[in-house]
Amino acid sequence: MTEIREHQQSAVRGSKLLMTGSTMALTDELVSLSLRPAIDVGPEPHRKPLTEAEVEMLANRLLHESTGAPLWIFAYGSLIWKPDFDAVESQNGAARGWHRSFCLQMTRWRGTRSQPGLMMALDRGGRCNGVVFRLADDDRLGQIRRLIRREVGTIEDAATVRWIPVATAHGVVRALVFWAGPKGERVSRKLPLETVAQVLARACGHMGSCAEYLYLTVKHLEERGIRDRNLWRLQKLVAAELVAIHGLNAAAGSH
């Protein structure tokens, strides 16, 4: 009980930064309150994972499409802070005609079937500032395979893999991006940020929580001098949700 009380007091101190200036409202302490053990029950029955043959077919197609030019990957979410490739260069870049959107419902990874989460994808319109990574030329096919296994769950999801132009300080590069323009029954567009915050503050799966996913994305964007206005507002809303869920305002008032 003492450890729990100390933990809550620490979270209270973090929650008092709800928030002015440039300091994030969503803190390590608040994020830790969103984490809980979860069992991976595997893919949903109606979603058939990619076969090895389909992985190979998609990887070879993308390899062919990348031939003769550097292979750039546009990262706008978890690939910024948890890349699964060997990059030899990175630059900040802007993808025009796209914006980040928590529009993809997930019942695995950072959500469950009883408490679904939301994953970021790119949706049409606006501008998305992120990071482009140039992959090493060695074992290009192998690195593409790794990215597919991480990012593409089913053959239907392969339709969200696109080549897009990304503007950098050194010119425009052609970059590969995942989860751009998703379609299907799992997609919910134009959700109010308040609704998204309620989901992110509560959803957690075997890979972690949605609040953690948001926190790490905003934190690493800030470290690169990138501020997404919607994500910045969203992290404040999620922080406030976690404060309310765990009764931290009441706890703060009792000390």
UniProtKB/TrEMBL annotation:
Entry EC no(s): 4.3.2.7
Keywords: Lyase, Transferase
Highest taxon listed in the record's lineage: Bacteria
Signal peptide start-end: none
PANTHER family found in the cross-reference section: CATION TRANSPORT PROTEIN CHAC-RELATED, GLUTATHIONE-SPECIFIC GAMMA-GLUTAMYLCYCLOTRANSFERASE 2
InterPro entries: ChaC, GGCT-like, GGCT-like_sf
A cellular component annotation (GO) from this entry: cytoplasm
One family name in Pfam for this protein: ChaC
Presence of the UniProt keyword Transferase in the record: yes
GO molecular function: glutathione specific gamma-glutamylcyclotransferase activity; transferase activity
GO BP: glutathione catabolic process
Protein name: glutathione-specific gamma-glutamylcyclotransferase
Species of provenance: Rhizobium sophorae
